[in-house]
Each structure stands twice: as structure tokens, then as C-alpha cells.
What we know:
- By secondary structure, the protein is α+β, with helices and mostly antiparallel strands.
- The chain has eight helices and eight strands, in the order ααββββββββαααααα.
- It has helices spanning 3-19, 21-39, 156-177, 195-207, 213-230, 238-247, 249-263, 273-277, and strands at 47-50, 55-62, 67-69, 79-89, 92-101, 105-108, 113-115, 128-132.
- The strands form three sheets. A three-stranded mixed β-sheet has the order 1-8-6, with no helix packed on it. A three-stranded antiparallel β-sheet has the order 2-5-4, with no helix packed on it.
- A hairpin with a 2-residue loop joins strand 4 and strand 5.
- The longest helix has 22 residues, at 156-177.
- It is extended.
- The two termini are 44 Å apart.
Amino acid sequence: xPAEPAKxxxxxxxxxATQRGSLGRAIGLCLLATLVSMETVHADETRxxxxxxxxxxxxxxxxxxxxxxxxxxxxxxxxxxxxxxxFPHGTEHRYDIVYYGLEPGKFDLTDxxxxxxxxxxxxxxxxxxxxKPVLAPGQIRxxxxxxxxxxxxxGYRILLLVAAIVWVVGLIALLFVxxxxxxxxxxxxxxxxxxADRLRPSIEDAIAGKLTQSQQAELERLLxxxxxxxxxLEEMKAAEAIGVLRDHxxxxxxxxxxxxxxxxPDHDDSVNVADLLKPYQDIPADALPA
Length: 290
């Protein structure tokens, strides 16, 4: 419920309570308490998400002046937060927040917020989120798949064998019989795709605001995974790996561009797509992790 209409309703309830004696006052106070509880989203409940998966908190009411996300100056911060909407709510504000964790654990989102007017955040209620690991405790790799023989189903295996023979014969016919009807080098004039060619549409769409927030987060994770693999940082924790990447000549520039583009959308500097794609011009398209 918007703050202004709720204010008018409370004023009418108070007026009715003063006009109708003690019974009317009691009814008005009960309705007023119900109204306040309906229009407030409590912040003391623990929300859960898994590592790398974004989650959303809508219409969260926090007291005091307007809040914003602290700059990510410390690469060891294991959680990423974005405020996607802020609305006045009387003397308070309502927020829409998107977050995702880089490591498992419990975190208070208000620890990563500050007030725009520079005043203290003391007295803010805790907004606790729990980031759960994808794998079971103590397990660092997925379970190995075990191959099992398929049960015998009558003539099913024979049918598969015949289909495989027909497929091989058809493939040979396409390679040798049909070759004379096509140019010898259909793709000779087309250079192979590079990693830059694969990334360019997604990056340009994201800068133009055409990607969803989950797609932006997925692109960011893919680029970080690529650099971690390229620099042999896969065994390091995500927060430590980001710190190493920031000091790297090429990867550090990428991280700074991503922060301006994803985490500071109101920044005055524009993202240069050509500079962002330059390190990937000579890298094969299949170098990006699946």
C-alpha cells in the first residue's frame, strides 16, 4: 500500500475513534495496527539463495534517509548487491534489492549499504541472507557418473544397429557423392569466430539495457570464469581470485568496466565496447567455459 493513502486512512481512523467514544477508539486502534502491519515488509527474516544465483527482495521498508550500495573497493567482499528501486515511504523508504553471493555463509545486507546524505546507518534492522553451497559440505567436486549397461529390450538393439549403419552410409554419400555439386571451399572465405565475436552481441545488448538482470549476472560470471581459468586461479576462493584479477593488466581493466556497467549504472563514464572486446580478438570462440 502506498505511504500517502495509508496516511489518510490512519487520520480518518483516529478521527472516528475520537468521535465515537472508547469503543470506536478501540476499533480504530485495532484497524490502524492491522494497516501498519500490512504495509510494512519486515526485515528480520532470513532469506536463502545458492552460490552464484541471484535473488530479489521487493518492497523492503527501512527507516531513515535514502540508502545506496557502498562501492566495491574491497575485492574480498563475498556478496554483490544492487538497489533496483527506491521509493519514499513516509519518513522511511521502500527498496527493491537484487543480490547474489560468491561464497556460502550468512550476511547482513545492511553492512554493505550507506546513506546518500552521509548520515549514520546506526539503528538499521538486520537484513540477513544465507548463501548456501551448491555442493554438499566437504565435497569439492560433483559425484562421478557411473556407466551402466542398458537392459535388453527385444529388438531395440538390432534397430539401433540398423539405424547406425544407415546413418554411416548416408554420411558417406553426402561426403563423396554430393561433393561434386558444391564448391570445394564453401567456408574458405569466412574466418572462424573469435571469443570477441561471441561476446559482442551480449555486451552491446547489456549496455543498451536489453539484457535481464539474471543475464547480466550470468555474463559477468562467464567472463570471471574465463580469466580464472586462463590465469590458473580456479583453486582460489572467488573473492581472492577477484583481487588477483584486479591487479592483472588486461583482466583488471575488464573488472573496472564491468563495475561501471553493472554496479554503477548512473556513472557518467560510458563503456567502450571496442576496448572491452580487444583482449578477446584472437581467442577462439570455444575458449569461453560452457
